Predict the structure.
Amino acid sequence: MSLRIAVVNGDGIGPEVIPEAQKILEHFLPDADFYEVELGLAKWERSGSACSPDDIRELKGADAILFGAVTTPPDPNYRSVLLQIRHELDLYANLRPIRPLRSSGQGSPADMMIVRENTEGLYSGIEEIGEERSTTLRVVTKAGSKRIAEKACSLILERNSKSPLVIGYKGNVLKSDLLFRDTCSEVAASFGIQTKAVFIDALCLDVLQHPKNYDVIVTTNMFGDILSDVCGYLTGGLGMLPSANIGDTHAFFEPVHGSAPDIAGKGIANPVAAIRSAAMMLEYFGMKREACLVEESIADLINSGVCTPDLGGCESTSSFGNRLLAAVCKKE
Ligand code: ATP
Ligand code: MG
């Protein structure tokens, strides 16, 4: 049976970058069935719903989902589409590889994987909003910490890494993080893997100063979000960072950046983050060689100056996508 791939273009620059990523998938998966699911702010403004139960059913029917970005307005009546999907599809592991593609001229580049818990922490959605006092409950569970730690440990084994599992936490202030740290350490011990627990604030600085010291970092929801944006500095900006959201039965691939309304409609958005997310999907389907080919072709182009304005180049979103597809075909 052919693969079924749901495509969500979304808002802002989503509809500009996602077609470029879809082109690459269509090239390597010519028999796959691609179908569009409309979600996001534009749909909410039109129909009053940004993501309906029918949409969730459509997403659940896919073997994998390629997702652009949706704009989340600061309206208390608007329920975040991403949170809803992560929850409904139980996409508990957010994987964010940090691997700069630009040659720095300083030997092998950094290569790390941030494994962010995706369903609890500060994003549990338990909030009380008031005029004088608002609270957001931060939830850490043993079961939630255990499954994300297991994911991180299997990645260490897959990557053949000799490095310890780094746990990003803030247990001196947030006691809930002691449960996270201790559960991660227990799981790692059962895999025969060493751990190193580091306070998240110190970690944000140290990954920038000594990126090559890091391999797999596991952390809670919001810390992982911030840490991976920080690491954007190592990769040439938000336009370069891909991610995967994986559960036990569903998989969802999206660029780390948001809908960037400030540059939407201009044809200048960098499609690399979206295309690398598609490459992560290929890897998820067991097509590691194809995924590497895409990564290498992107690196070749960027290192020879073919890139969008955010990286100092003059390619448009679609001209970069077209040149990449040509480069991939040539390399095969
Ligand atoms: P959202 O609320 O949807 O997250 P945002 O305004 O926070 O939107 P982001 O997408 O998070 O925007 O990006 C922050 C900034 O980084 C943008 O204003 C944009 O200038 C830049 N940026 C993000 N993604 C890209 C990209 N793919 N190419 C070029 N620039 C980008
Ligand atoms: Mg943003």
In short: Residues 13, 17, 69, 71-72, 238-239, 257-263, 269-270, 273, 310 surround adenosine-5'-triphosphate (ligand 1) (CB under 6 Å). The chain has two domains: 1-93+236-332, 103-231. The longest strand covers residues 4-10.
